Amino acid sequence: MPTTVTALLVSHDGARWLPAVIAGLRAQTRPVDRVVAVDTGSKDGSAELVESAFGAVLRLPGSTSFPQAVVAGLDDSPDAGPGEWVWILHDDANPDPDALAALLEAAEEHPDADVLGPKLREWPSLRRLLELGVTISGTGRRETGLERGEYDQGQHDQVRTVLAVNTAGMLVRRRLLEELGGFDDQLPIFGNDIDFGWRAAAAGHRTIVVPQAVVFHAEAAHRGVRRTPLTGRHTHYQERRAALFTLLANSRARALPFQLLRLGLGTLLRMIGFLLVRSVGEALDELAALVSLCSSPRQILAARRSRQGRQVTDPATLRGLLAPAWVPYRHGLDFLGDVVTAVTLQAQDVAERRRAAAAENEPPPVVRRPVARDEDVIGDDTGLVARFVTSPVALAIGLFVVLALIGARPAFASLAGGGLSPVPGQAGDWWRLWAESWHPLGQGTDVPAPAYVLPLALAATLLGSPSAVVTAIFVLVVPLGLWGAWRFLRVAGRLASRAGSPRLLLLWGAATYALVPVVSGAWGDGRLGTVVVAALLPWLAHAALGFADPDPDRRWRAAFRTGLLLAVGSAFAPGLWFFALLLGLVVTGAAAVVVRSALRDRSAWGPPATALALVPLLLLPWWLPALLNGAGRALVLETGRLPVAAVDSWGLLTGRVGDLGGPTWLGAVLAVLALLALVPRATRIPVLVCWIVAAVAAVTAAVWGGFTLDLAATSTPAGLGFLVVVLQGAFVVAASLGGQALARQLAPAFPAWRRGAAAVLAVAATVVPVVGLGWFVAGGHDRLDETAGEGIPAYMVLSSKEGPAHGILVLRGDVRHGLTYSVRRGDGVTLGEDEIVDLTPEDTGFTRTVRTLVSRPTPSVVNALGADGIEYVVLPAPADGDVAATLDATGGLVQASAENRSTRAWRVARPLSASAVEGPRSWLRIGLLVLQGLAIVVVAVLCAPTSERRRPR
Q: 233: which DSSP letter?
C-alpha cells in the first residue's frame, strides 16, 4: 500500500520564521506528496509568502482556532486513501532535512504506531532540548521529563511510547484524525496535543517519539513573541485553562471529585507562589482559568460524554503514560529554591552596589594584620568558631545579646502588669476580635478593634499562642533593635563619608539604640506600642533610605516596603504616621528649595508619597470606623491600659516615659554627644539632618502633648512613647556620625589636646550603653510580674466564660469617696479589648441602673440586671458595709460565697437575657476587612524582590 504524506502548514503572523520553514520543508530528503497551507488572518505578509511558495493558501479569519484550521485544511484536500499520513507543521517550526524520512522509517518499524512526533529543539539556539514527547501531571503541568536548559547530547535518542507529542511536527494517520474528530475546539491554541494524545491512547492507539527526527521550534505563542486574537495578553490564562480542561475531560469518573478538589487547592497554592515572585498577572490568570471552567460545567460534561464511547485501553496502562505522582512535589521544591535564590541574589545585588558606592573613591589600601572581621561571622562555615573568637566586635555583640536576654528574664513568664493587659488564651480570640463589628464587652460596643490586633493574630497563628507572641516581642526587642540599628548605621555612615563608620562605633551606636526601650522605662511598664516601634524604627529608616536609590524601580519598591513597615508601626503607635507625614512635608519643602527639579520627577516624590498613602489604606478598617463611631481619640492614644504616664520636656530630652527608666543622666549624656556632633565639619550636614528629625519629633510632641483625653472611665494624656524612641534614635545617629569625624582626631598626627578631648568623649560615650545594660541586667525595674487579681471568686469566672450573658458586675470604692463599676464577661479584658473598653462611651442607662441598685434598689432594677446579662454582683475586698447592707436587703439578689471574707458577692435570681449584649453586623466593616486583606497581599507582593519570570521577547 503506497504511503502518501500531506504536509499541513498553519500560519498566523509568522513572516519572520516562514522563509526558513518553507526552505526546510522543500529540503526534505523524503519530499512530501502535497502541501496544504492554511493562514488565519495574518497581517504581516505570511499568506503571500506561503502562496508564492506552494501556489495556493486557504485564507481564514483571525479568530479561527488551530483545531478549526486543521479541519478546514483536511476538508480542502481530498482523501488519498488509507495509507495517507498528515504531517502538521507550525509557521515557527523548521524541520531538519531528514525529519520526515526518519518519521516514516520509524512508522515502518512500528506499524502499530498511529501518531509519531520528532525531537523538538529550541530555535534559534538549535541545541537546547524542548520536548521528546509530553505528558501531564495531576496538577495540570506540562511535563517533558527534561531538565531546565538541557542540551541535546544524544542522551534521549531512543524511540519510546509517550502520551502525546507536540503538534509542531506531528505525523498522524489521517483516518485517526477523522476518527477522533480532530483536535478539541475547546482548546483553541494550547493543550490540544496532550488532549489528542490522551484520547488516542484511550481509544487503543499508540503514540511514539522519534528522536532521530528533529524539528526546531520557536514556541512563539507560548513565549509571548506573537500575540493572536485567541490569546491576547493573557497567554498564561489560555495555557492554564487548557491544562485544567484536559485533566477534567479525560480523568476517570471515580477520580473526578478528588481531581476537582486538588485543582482548586493547587490553584490557590500556585497563586500564592506567583504572588511571592511578583507575578500578579499570572496569579490572576490562574484564578480566572479555574473560574472559567467552573462556570461552564456543561462543556466539561459534554467533553467527557464524547470520550466515554471510545475508551478501550486499560486505565492502568494510561496511568503509566501520565507523569508520576511525585513530580508536582519536586516542582514545589524547585520553586522554593528559586525564591530563595531570588532573595539571595537581591541581597547580593544590594550589597555589591553599596560596596561599589563605598569604594568609589576610597584611599589607597593599607597593609594590615589579618584579623577576622565581624562580617565573617555570618557567611562561610569554614573556621566559623575561629573567626568568631578572634573578632572583638563579634565577641562583644555575642556578650551583649546574652546579657540582654538575661535582663529580659521577666518576659519569659506570662506577662501582665503596668500598661500590658493579659493576653487571650488562643489566637482565634484575636481573629474574632479583628473580624467582629460588634463586641460583647461591657454592655456591647461597636468601637473597632485596634489595628495591632491583626499583626498580633498573624504572629500568634505562626507561633502557636498569644502569650508566645508577647514574650517574643519583649525578649527580642533588644536583639532586633541591635541588628536593625547596626544595618542602618553602617549604610548611613557610608553615605556620610566614603570610609564609613568604624566597627566599634557601629557597635556603640547599635547597642545604645537597642537599649532605648529598656532604659526609657517603656519595657518595664509593659508599653507594647513603644516597644514594637523601637524594634521597627531602624528597619523602617533603612527601608526609607531606598528613596535615594538611583534606580527608579528600587525607589518604588522601597516605597512599598516603607509603607508596610510604617503601617505596622502605626498600628501599634498611631501617632507615628502623623510624625512621618510632618517629616515628609519638611523634607519635601527642603528639597524644593535645594533641588527644584526633583519635584518635577514623579519617581522622586512619588515613592515617599505612596509610602505615606499606604498607611491609611492598610489601616482603614480601624481608622474609618473609629472616626465614624466617635472613637477617633484612639489616633492619639498609647497602646495598652490607660492612663499612660505623662512625658514632660525633660523626659522627652532624656528619653524617659515613666518612673521605671534607667538613670536620667544617661539620656542627658546622649543628648550632649548629639549636640557636640555638630562641631566636626566633615559630617555636619548629615548630623544636621538628624537634628531636623529631632526637631520635627519635638514639634510633634509639643502638639501631641497638648491633648488630654477625657474618656468614660479615666482621663489620660496622649501617648508620646514613640516620639521618645524617635528622638533618642536621632540622637544616636547624630552622635555616631559625629563619631566618624571624631575617630580621626585619635590619630597620632593630630595635636595632643584634640586627641585628649576625643578620648574623653569616647569614654563618656562608652559609659552610656555599659551602664544602661548593667542596669537592665540587675533587674527589678518592671511591673511585668504584677499578678493581682480582680477579687472575683473562681467559680464566677468559670461561669462568665459560658457566654456573654453571664456577666459579672464589679463594684469598687465606697459611698464616701465614690463608687465605680465595671462589667466582666468571658476571660475579662485582654490585650486589644482594653482599648475598646476605654474608648466606649458611657452607657448612661446602665449607669442609672447601677446607681439605683446601690442607693434605692427595687425589683425592677434587679430585673434590669438580668435583662442586661448580669449574673453576679461583686464587692471586692474591702467591701463597703453600707453598700453590702443595701444589697443584702434587695429582693432578687441571693448572697453568694466568696473566697475572701472581705469580699461580698450576690447572684441575680432573675432570668438572664441571651441577647443582652448582641448588636448589629456592619457590612461596611466586612467590606473594609476584605479591602484590607487584598491591599496587604498586593503590598506584600510589591515589596518582594523582582524575580518575575519574563518570557524572552
A: T
Torsion of CA 735, 739, 741, 746, to 10 degrees: 150
Residue 347 has pLDDT above 70, yes or no: no
Paired sense of beta strands 904-908 and 893-896, if any: antiparallel
Q: What's the Cα-to-Cα distance from 176 to each of 194, 207, 584, 617, rounded to whole Å? A: 15, 12, 71, 59
Look at the block and give the residue holding cell 505563542. Answer: 221
d(CA 774, CA 407): 9
The alpha carbon torsion through 375, 377, 383, 388 (nearest 10 deg) reads 120
- Residue 282 in any domain: the answer is no
3-state DSSP: the chain helix, strand, coil percent, rounded to 5?
Answer: 55, 10, 35
Distance CA 535, CA 739 (A): 23
Q: Give domain status of residue 46, yes or no.
A: yes
Inter-residue contact 520 to 656 (CB < 8 Å): yes
> Phi and psi for 10 in degrees, rounded to 5?
-110, 130
Quote the CA–CA distance of 406 and 415 in Å, as a whole number.
16
Query: Which of 442, 447, 436 shows the shortest CA–CA distance to 921?
Result: 436
With vertex at residue 337, the alpha carbon angle to CA 336 and CA 343, rounded to the nearest 5 degrees, is 90
Q: What are phi and psi of 346, to 5 degrees?
A: -65, -45
Query: Residue 396 falls within a domain, yes or no?
Result: no
Report d(CA 601, CA 588) in Å as an integer: 13
Return the exposure string of 818-845: e unless at least 16 CB atoms fall within 10 Å of the residue's CB, then b.
ebebebbbbebbbbbbbbbbbbbeebee
Residue type, 507: L
Domain range for 533 is: 478-778
- CATH number of the domain that residue 130 is part of: 3.90.550.60
pLDDT digits (tens, 9 = 90+) for 760-798: 787 888 888 999 989 998 886 777 765 545 678 888 888
Which of 727, 753, 778 is at the close of a domain? 778
Torsion angle in degrees (nearest 10) through CA of 582, 585, 589, 590: 60
Q: Which residues pair with 715 in a beta bridge?
A: 710
Positive or negative, the Cα torsion across 332, 334, 335, 336? positive
> Which residues, in sequence order, are bridge partners of residue 131?
120
Q: How many domains does the chain have?
A: 2
What is the Cα–Cα distance from 134 to 197, expressed in whole angstroms? 9
Of 463, 519, 435, nearest in space to 729 by CA: 519
Q: 387 phi and psi, to 5 degrees? A: -65, -35
Q: List pLDDT tens digits, range 414-458.
A: 778 888 888 888 899 999 999 998 888 888 888 888 999 999 999
- Is 618 part of a structural domain of the chain? yes
**Contact of 879 with 484, CB cutoff 8 Å:** no
Q: Determine contact, residues 130/217, Cβ cutoff 8 Å.
A: yes
In terms of C-beta density within 10 A (0-12 exposed, 13-18 middle, 19 or more buried), how is residue 916 classed? buried
C-alpha cell of 654? 532624656
Contact between residue 751 and residue 660 where contact means Cβ atoms under 8 Å apart: no
Q: Round to whole Å and give the CA distance between 537 and 616.
A: 19
Q: Are 407 and 777 in contact (CB under 8 A)?
A: yes
Q: Which residues pair with 445 in a beta bridge?
A: 439
> Among residues 792, 799, 789, 798, which one has the least CA distance to residue 869?
799
Distance CA 804, CA 820 (A): 21
- Cell matching residue 682: 566633615
Annotate 725-790 with DSSP letters as a single string: HHHHHHHHHHHHHHHHHHHHTTSTTS-HHHHHHHHHHHHHHHHHHHHHHHHHHH-----TB-----
Write the pLDDT tens digit of every residue in 210-255.
Answer: 999 999 999 888 887 887 777 777 788 888 999 999 999 888 888 8
Of 778, 794, 815, at which residue does a domain stop? 778
DSSP 210: E
Phi and psi torsions of 38, nearest 5°: -125, 125
DSSP H/E element including 248: helix 235-250
Residue among 613, 602, 604, 608 at smallest CA distance from 559: 608
